[in-house]
Amino acid sequence: MTRSIFAATAIGAITLTAVACSPASGEAPQRIPAPAQDIQEAGPNAVAQFAGGCFWGVSAVFDHVVGVKNVTAGYAGGMAVDATYDRVITETTNHAETVRIVYDPAKVSYGRLLQIYFSVAHDPTQLNRQTPDVGRSYRSAIFPQSPAQQQLATAYIAQLNAAHVFKRPIVTRLERGTFYPAEAYHQHYLALHPESPYIQAYDMPKLRALQVLYPQVYR
Is this model's pTM higher than 0.90 or not? Predict the structure, then answer.
């Protein structure tokens, strides 16, 4: 696993994580069809939770979507006692690096968030990795927050697979699990470190893809 290799060095914590995170690079961002159906959620706030490799890039993408109010990087799928970066990188806790998205469903729908997740935020065809990071903490997973979200996510994965949108089958799993926020230095990493070589090489292209593919929701 990439992170465990760098963990043996004497680099400081923030520099270490800047080197350790690596991007999805299997399927290039591409236009994909929207869900055949969508859901309507009531109230000013709704929550979505997605895992798709290093959470810096995923959180940066959704930070730039109109209607998204807040994005928190964290961990889901494991126990509270293990929900720390040092434990998660051992690949023994079953956590996935996950983002928790609070959004206004009157401005952006769950279906649109799913469309962005599958086309821009990560490569949903890589099993337990986002190249070159390997391990279940980098898996592709959705943590539905309601039966309606689960039904839509399930139907959308089936729709995309049936249409052979990607060269390989989607391996994204639907899971349950409590979300635990990550350490402060992981939050909004792109905004705080825009000149980082990692950010420039791997996350800025995701933002450019978001702007090109979804200009109507890019901010």
Answer: no
